[in-house]
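Objective 1b: paired records.
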Amino acid sequence: MSDGIPNPFEGLEAQLRRADRFRDSVDPVAAIAAYRTFADFLRPRLPELRIAAGLPEEPGTRKDGRIVADRDGARVDPSTLNLYTFWNTPLDAAPPLVQACIAEMERLHADLPTRLTVLDGASARQLVDIPDAVADALETDHPAHFSDFVRVSVLDRLGGIWVDATCWAPAPLPAAVAPLLTAGALYPRWTRRQIGNWFIAAVAATPLIRLQRLSLEAWWESGGGIPDYFLYHRIFEVLLDLVPEYHGQWDAAPTLSSAASHLLQLGMMQPWDPDAMRFVAGASIVQKLSYKYDEVPPGSVLDRLVARRPILAD
């Protein structure tokens, strides 16, 4: 855009081909069926889950959840919001975009006390307990779901910020996240009920995260399978409906837009333009990318990313 009139279709064909990879990832019928499955599973277990999460055995109210939000939001300290990500195979063999995103996130936080910790299965076990049932069911055959359990376990025990290995940020995250962590936990969201878990921030032992971990752990220890790829998200929705305090805490959380956080991914096949990148950087504190692509258009945003060149002009 800065060098004359752009071709609006340049990079579009590559983006459309890339979109085919995601065509079958969302199944509305499976989502509804999975919601019912998890609701039936969790409902009789709620008293024990509530107690384990530090809540009274009997249900409270959404107002109680807002009180929890105020309490845990007051515990936020940006200097203790350590960053974590996960890649369970050798990083030097990871896709180029994964390597570039991790390198940029490390560079961005190199001079801060809250540096990025890149976890794998072994190092994650040094931080949290991973039940054998979870590891046996997921670590080899379902690595994305294993990573889901690792992230919620790490944040439940230690607090901090979780970023997927394909995240990019325009500025250090702890200072940007702290003003949004007033409820003690934060997810990006598409709607009030639909979250993303590629980015999570939380203080340790907050109910919004602890109940999620406990529910996932109970599911896998029962021998549950994967009725829906977005299993984590369906459980979140069930807890929202079954636990008033959970709902109240979530109602108190500020909005971090998933739509705004995908602008860089939507435009990564397009020609790099500094004005467009400044707009993207101002739209959200973090951007979610994807390493699922077949080509790197020369001169594109993706081309600069994988070459580890800055996408924001000085």
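Objective 1b, second protein:
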Amino acid sequence: MTRPFLTALLLAGAGAALALGDDRPATRLADLIEEARLRNPDIKAAEARAQAAAYVPRQVSAYDDPVFSYEAWNAPESFDITRADNNILKLSQKVPFPGKRSSAGTAAERDADVSRREAEMVQLEVIAAVKRAYWDLWLVHENLLVYSRDKDLVERLAHIAEQKYAVGQVSQPDVLRAQVELTRLISRVTTGTLAIDTTRAELAGLLSRDDPGSIGIPEEQPVQARLEQNVEALTELALRQRPEVAAQEASVARFEANRRSARLGYFPDFEFTAERFYNFDRRDGVGGMVSISIPLVYKYKYDAAVGEANARITTAQAELRRLQDRIRREVQQAFLRAKTALLQRDLFQSTHIPQAEQALRASQIGYETGRVDFLSLIDSVRAIESVHLEHFQAEADFEKAHADLERAVGGDVPRDIQQ
């Protein structure tokens, strides 16, 4: 197959779908991604959780509310407080040891950072899923095109077989074999149409659309990309920009702030009280009181809190290392899947498709002239059908692997990755 013919075949998907009765407008991948960002409920929920977490630091770093209290001492049985020996107005405020509330606020800020990074993670996951679903939809459209085109080809071959049978050049089994092959391709066209509906439903779920049928024909086509073997640079980029890494680093910082809070638990808290006395038959006055906690009485409680904080820091650091190892594996696997798909695509374009088309042309001419039997001709039809399907599968596999690679890296990856 020549390069212009292959390009024309790749660009024929939208026109073929319209020819098959699909009048939906074309769908652009960029529009679907933007719609998913705005409508996907997972993204909305993650952003709301991040917003909620951002309000926590101001709450936990603030002092407790001041307390106003009133006391009446030795009031008469009539409860006439004006004749009570003492009417006392109090205003008290609890004050933690310096640094306790700021440490709690720092821990909450790191929690908020974790939630914000988790929202970014969800968005990356959803965008990658949209891209995979989009290329699945493109693939089933292209497969339907292949089946429809081959159905038309077999119809022509069946007509030739009927003409040859009518003049006694072939036997009746050739006509029957043609009808069997035609029935098989009609069945493939029917199931291909159902596969389109299935893929639309998957994409509609990601977009939170009520009507999957509103999703049209994919407009974008696979590009002729090249990936240079520089997976190490991609891995380093992933380790720098993956939101999971930033989230786990924030988690480590959160537990470090918790440890500082636990160590401050050994120090006392205070409570300051101002009082105003209104006395019966005596002069009025003012008073004050300072209270202090004694944490050393239950020192083992704070020892346990510090031990827990140290253990959680060790756990978070180990999880960070595990995450980094997983990111390296994900980048490597996605990169190799993309390279494999590109190699398969190039092999189909340069070898398999031209050979299969040449074999089909030779078999068709040979059958018309009586030098090739009908089984050989059908084998050639099935061979070219298979290579076209596998070629489109390789194109879709690359696009989906590239989407997974961008997810693994944590951002856009240029189609030409230079050394």
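The radius of gyration is 37 Å. The domain at 3-409 is CATH 1.20.1600.10 (Outer membrane efflux proteins (OEP)).
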